[in-house]
Amino acid sequence: MTTHLATLLLVDDTPDNLLLLSDMFTDAGYRVLCAESGDMALDCAQQEPPDLVLMDVRMSGMDGFEACRRLKTVRALEAVPVLFTSAHVTAAIWRDALASGGADVLSKPFTNLEVLTRVALHLRLQQLQRTVGSLLPT
């Protein structure tokens, strides 16, 4: 039996953040793709659709919300969960995250256990949604 290794797309314009997250997820057994901008994330996701996107809210150029809105317009990516990260989580951040199609918001700094747990939760929810969807009549 082949096991699917979940692919995560990490998006942050701070290379140190990408390195830290990439190491953490690789050590946890995930396949990791990295992008340093919203534009790079869109290109990467269209070439190799991830199972989940972890995206910084504040990036130079295109912010995370706009990148998420654009991801959600691509048929192959519309169901991919997007989790936002932000150092300043407010009600407005939550509102904009959900309005752009995001699934969750993680506050920086975060612990590895929190991030790994929330990512695993959203991947499991996505898997269950696919299962239920395949059982529904067409």
Present the secondary structure layout:
Elements (H helix, E strand, L loop, with lengths): L6 E5 L3 H13 L3 E5 L2 H10 L4 E5 L7 H8 L10 E5 L4 H9 L4 E4 L4 H24 L3
Parallel strand pairs: 1-2, 1-3, 3-4, 4-5
Task: List its salient traits.
single chain, 138 residues, alpha/beta, Rossmann fold, five-stranded parallel beta sheet
Overview of this structure, please?
The model has no long low-confidence stretch (mean pLDDT 93). The chain is globular and about 45 Å long. The protein has 138 residues and is α/β, with parallel strands linked by helices. Helix 1 (15-27) links the parallel strand 1 (7-11) and strand 2 (31-35). It has a single domain (7-132), classed as Response regulator (Rossmann fold). Strands 2-1-3-4-5 form a 5-stranded parallel β-sheet, sandwiched between helices. The protein has 5 helices and 5 strands; from the N terminus they run βαβαβαβαβα. The longest helix is centred in the last third of the chain and has 24 residues, at 112-135.
